[in-house]
Amino acid sequence: MTSIKEQAAISRLLSFLQEWDNAGKVARSHILDKFIETNQGKTAPELEQEFSQGASLFLVRLTTSLRITYMTDSCLEKLLRSIGIFLSAVSSNRYLIEFLEVGGVLTLLEILGLEKIKEEAKKESVKLLQVIANSGRTYKELICESYGVRSIAEFLAKSKSEETQEEVQVLLDSLVHGNPKYQNQVYKGLIALLPCESPKAQQLSLQTLRTAQPIIGTTHPSIVDCVLKVLGTMHLEVQYEAIELIKDLVGYDVRQALLKGLVALLIPSVKETSKLQAKILSDPSVLQLTPSLPMFLQQAAAAKAIGASCRCSPWWRSTCASAWGRNSTSSSWLPTRPPPATSLCQAQLQVQTALAPQPGPPCSCPQSNAEDLYMKIDSIQADILAANTVNVTKALCLHGSSYSMNTLYGSRDSAQMAYLTHFEEDVESKE
């Protein structure tokens, strides 16, 4: 027989449930506001005490309302936050099972794909998926079995909120850890995100790939091409993450393919650059964005990636030293090393004379250490050098120099020499 106190508590619970059942949209919104305010952070026993051991009765009403109204976005964010109070409570495994039994995971994943749903509601949906994934391996597998990786990855690529995208990264990172059955699926999903148009999604995917790679242990063949294409981005934070991932990948079986791809990026395509050469030379705006800019950014990033990888990988150092220092036949796809940047000024008096500035203070940097030139010259010297229109090849020819093109540029194939010749002819025609 129940006591008077228990009967009063049950009466309050029934009255509360009846109020919810009879309430309209506005009234339910107020009920949810009050519930969130008074119960945030409570444990499962505390929630049971609040609802007189009948908290599940309110939870089932929340989940039912979610399944009925989620497509209309009616109090959706508040519904998800209220459900989150139950699922994130300490000792809340019973609530979690009750939510999953009614198809909670599928509902949350479907919310991510709806265009009319507000970003705030989708963010709350991601947080609930985080709670579910952090509950154990079984729940991570349930998300993946529900085609969750694809839905989550697509949402990351389309989301316009960086804060929401960071929450998605946390979810993907959770799905990679402690999920051996589906970790490769998550890994492939991260690689598939690299060509997307969102720079933030690219950055977060590259960061998560760095975490996932040691867990997976092996590499997917498509990762090389995807990472190399990312190097053409204009967003330096994305380029940085790509180079850091490349440094990690040199320890895996794709290192030779990766090095070959990076070296290939150092040589611009003659077909692509020759079409734009006249336009570039005739345009007075140096900083104008041309269609070839991503290619040049990719070229510069490839050089940085090779340098960074050589510093952290003995294999890369030995391979590059062998190929560029001794022109190893085993690495014939690597270009012969060109002479140092200072050779032009040190070996040729004609070039040294031609490059000498007319007015202003002398600048000996090109003769001593051309690699540090940009760090040591002042603004006046920079203006003088920038205004210099010396044609090195023409100057050498006029003075009868025997300094051959092979010495200047190293041994190159016919396509590369054709590009150089075309460039020089264009310069002479402009003159």
According to DSSP, the number of beta strands is 0
Put simply, the count of helices is 27
Main sheet properties: none
Instruction: Provide the residue-averaged pLDDT.
Output: 79
Percent of residues in beta strands? under 5%
From the helix content, strand content and strand pairing, which structural class follows?
A: mainly alpha
Compute the CA-based radius of gyration. Answer: 32 Å
List the uncertain runs: 277-281, 285-289, 326-333, 335-342, 344-348, 401-413
Helix coverage percent: over 70%
- CA distance, first residue to last residue: 106 Å
* Broad shape: elongated
- How do the helices and strands follow one another from N- to C-terminus? HHHHHHHHHHHHHHHHHHHHHHHHHHH
Kindly summarize this structure in a few lines.
With 431 residues, this protein is mainly alpha-helical. It contains 27 helices and no strands.
Description:
The relative contact order is 0.05. The chain is an all-alpha fold and 431 residues long. The termini are far apart. The longest helix has 20 residues, at 293-312. Helix 12 runs antiparallel to helix 13 (199-216). It has 27 helices and no strands. It is elongated, with a radius of gyration of 32 Å. Mean pLDDT is 79; it is low at 277-281, 285-289, 326-333, 335-342, 344-348 and 401-413. 70% of the residues lie in helices and 0% in strands.
